[in-house]
Design brief:
With 264 residues, the chain is of the alpha+beta class. It folds into two domains: 126 residues, Diaminopimelate Epimerase, Chain A, domain 1 (Roll), CATH 3.10.310.10; 122 residues, Diaminopimelate Epimerase, Chain A, domain 1, CATH 3.10.310.
């Protein structure tokens, strides 16, 4: 039996930008080792695996190296595929059961909006070797259950970062977010995200990181809605809105190709 698999560019309205994700539509739950092998074969930052269940869909995410607890861009890509393939009708909500609880997505004009849990900051001491690994000093550091976040003085610093990924591997976290206020008036803040410990040296556009960045910048900018830019080489826009202990992430997606897996 063949299994449909898609590659979708998320957080962009044009092909070959944003963050590419795999989306595998399963007829039933699949073996974990097989899903990890497919993700390694796709060689994207994340591949999503989804199958129907009574109250919606079961959704899991794998990098080429490990399963992860939360992934925004692959969730956006999955919702996009469900509507584009008419597995969901345009007015239907997508409901996903995941390792981070129930996540929901809906269409809002040209955007897909996803309802994710906020992941606010916790205090953190400066880590030995962090500045050397990133190749820059920073003005503030904090963490949440997934990642470290460091704020630097300018967007130029972020855009010119050349991290030492071997040294970043020593940081005991999923990844490191580097952020600053945006220079351009149309954006509120910018960021980059590095996660070599889970097999993703730099993630092009990271939805889950904005579950941390949203609450972080809300405290500093005194607002609850943002337009953010992730300044990776591919780059991408994310609309961020805080609603209580949830973060609504908005973006667009473009299907690049559809294929069929013929080997199990």
């Amino acid at each position: 039996m063949s299994i449909p698999i898609y590659q979708v560019d998320a957080f962009t309205d044009k092909p070959f930008a944003g963050n590419p994700a795999g989306v595998c539509i399963l007829p039933e739950p699949a073996d974990e080792k097989w899903m990890q092998n497919v993700a390694r074969e796709m060689n994207l930052s994340e591949t999503a695996f989804i199958h129907r269940q009574d109250d919606g869909f079961r959704l899991r995410w794998f990098t080429p190296a490990v399963e992860v607890d939360l992934c925004g861009h692959a969730t956006l890509a999955t919702a996009h595929v469900l509507w584009e393939s008419r597995r969901l009708e345009p007015g239907e909500q997508a409901r996903f059961s995941t390792r981070s609880g129930v996540l929901k997505a809906k269409r809002s004009g040209s955007l897909i909006e996803m309802d994710f849990p906020a992941k606010p900051e916790e205090s953190a001491e400066p880590l030995s070797g962090m500045e050397e690994a990133l190749g820059t000093s920073f003005r503030y550091i904090c963490k949440n259950k997934f990642d470290y976040l460091v704020e630097v003085d300018s967007e130029d610093i972020i855009r010119n970062l050349k991290p030492d990924f071997q040294k970043l591997l020593r940081i005991q976290a999923r990844g490191v977010i580097v952020t600053s206020r945006a220079q351009a008036p149309n954006y509120d803040f910018v960021s980059r995200f590095f996660a070599p410990r889970v097999g993703v040296p730099e993630d092009p556009v990271t939805g889950s990181a904005h579950c941390f960045l949203g609450p972080y910048w809300a405290k500093r900018l005194g607002k609850k809605e943002f337009l953010a830019f992730q300044a990776s080489p591919r780059g991408g826009e994310i609309r961020v809105r805080l609603e209580g202990d949830r973060v609504v992430l908005g973006g667009q997606a473009v299907t690049i190709f559809k294929a069929d897996l013929v080997s199990e």
